[in-house]
Automatic annotation (TrEMBL):
GO terms for biological process: proteolysis. It holds the Pfam family Peptidase_C1. Residues 1-18 form the signal peptide. SUPFAM superfamilies: Cysteine proteinases (SSF54001). This is Peptidase C1A papain C-terminal domain-containing protein. Residues 95-342 form the Peptidase C1A papain C-terminal domain. GO terms for molecular function: cysteine-type peptidase activity. Gene3D superfamilies: Cysteine proteinases. Keywords: Signal.
Length: 358
């Protein structure tokens, strides 16, 4: 398969990409296709798609630029998107209309159906990214590895508990260094279990600037930034931290086309995306999530894991998972293919594929 690249003076682009160097991606995955997209083009295309759906009038250029700022490394001017893979199915009729990763990979279902609550931390990237890394490593090993990878490690070494989520930092750390095992708070499982217990997230985020009714943080828990562990914090765990690490081969952005996203999930496992957060997201939806009239945008995003898709009463949906224990069932449905709250715009994941065998 030919590699699709938009030539934008690649020598200059290399140092400003929002993922790995394009040459490195091509070296690791020579059969995949990539597209280099400037931030300006990404914003323009997103505004156009949102206008066509008529879905979210608050999705302005300013909002989109802020979203990219949170999801790309500082100074990034371009995004490298994976747009093709010989393992993908090119015929849409051969990709199932309904899919649940827990059903395809039953030996990994317990991991795929599990996402830890981040507690009072403002960043939910470590939870979602570590969960997706666990899923994909279980799938990669055909179920031989079924341990939970450490949420705590990414919270201390990739992102900040007191900062807004920047998932690329977790993906980069997982690729550069890898993360050890580690269960949820109080589990005493794995090398580095999580520090915080779950809390009530209906009182979590600050309201969007200029709005009233400020929302308070989780009560009774102090928020602090975690140190990057140098050894296992679970004294009962005998394997040294550095020998316990599981390291990604690559992290990358997917295409923003829903068929490409479905292909990625169907072939390799769950992916991570995020939506702009509104106050109606704090309520458990009945059926497919729909925006409520008069909803208020909060000064945050919510990272979610896509594990499948389907169609219900004529509406296409993504099957997703979130992190909040206080929000009922962690599996929920959100509209698919209509850029709902910028759902398909910035999707990331990583692989454990052997170099030269993909």
């Amino acid at each position: 398969m030919l590699t699709v690249i938009v030539f934008l003076s690649l020598a200059l682009v290399h140092q400003s990409l929002g993922s790995e160097n394009i040459d490195e991606l091509l070296r690791k995955h020579p059969t995949w296709s990539f597209k280099v997209e400037s931030v300006e083009t990404a914003v323009k295309n997103a505004l156009q798609k949102n206008s066509l759906t008529g879905h979210n009038l608050e999705l302005t250029e300013k909002v989109l630029r802020e979203k990219l700022r949170r999801n790309l490394p500082p100074g990034a001017t371009h995004i490298v998107r994976k747009v093709g893979d010989p393992k993908w199915e090119s015929d849409p009729s051969k990709v199932p209309g309904t899919f649940d990763a827990r059903e395809k990979w039953k030996h990994c279902a317990s991991l795929i159906g599990q996402v830890e609550d981040e507690g009072p931390c403002r960043a939910d990237g470590p939870s979602i990214v570590s969960s997706t890394m666990s899923d994909r490593y279980c799938i990669f090993t055909n179920g031989a590895f079924k341990e939970k990878l450490s949420h705590e490690m990414l919270m201390g070494c990739g992102e900040l508990c007191t900062g807004k989520s920047a998932q690329y930092q977790s993906w980069r750390y997982g690729t550069d260094f890898g993360i050890p095992t580690g269960g949820p708070h109080g589990s005493q499982k794995g090398c580095v279990p999580y520090t915080y217990p779950a809390c009530d997230h209906t009182t979590y985020y600050d309201d969007y600037p200029g709005r009233k009714n400020k929302i308070n943080e989780c009560k009774g828990q102090m928020v602090f930034d975690h140190d990057c562990p140098k050894k296992c914090t679970n004294e009962k765990y005998k394997k040294p931290l550095d020998k316990d690490r599981v390291k990604l081969s690559t992290y990358y952005y997917t295409s923003d086309h829903e068929f490409a996203i479905r292909n990625e999930v169907y072939t390799y496992g769950p992916v991570v995306t995020n939506v702009l957060l509104y106050d109606d997201f704090l309520e458990k939806p009945n059926g497919i999530f729909q925006a409520k009239e008069g909803r208020k945008r909060l000064d945050a995003e919510k990272l979610i894991k896509i594990i499948g898709w389907g169609k219900e009463n004529g509406t296409l949906y993504w099957l997703c998972m979130h992190t909040w224990d206080s929000w009922g069932d962690k599996v929920f449905k959100i509209p698919r293919g209509v850029y709902f709250d910028s759902m398909e715009w910035v999707v990331m994941t990583g692989t454990y594929l052997d170099i030269g065998n993909n």
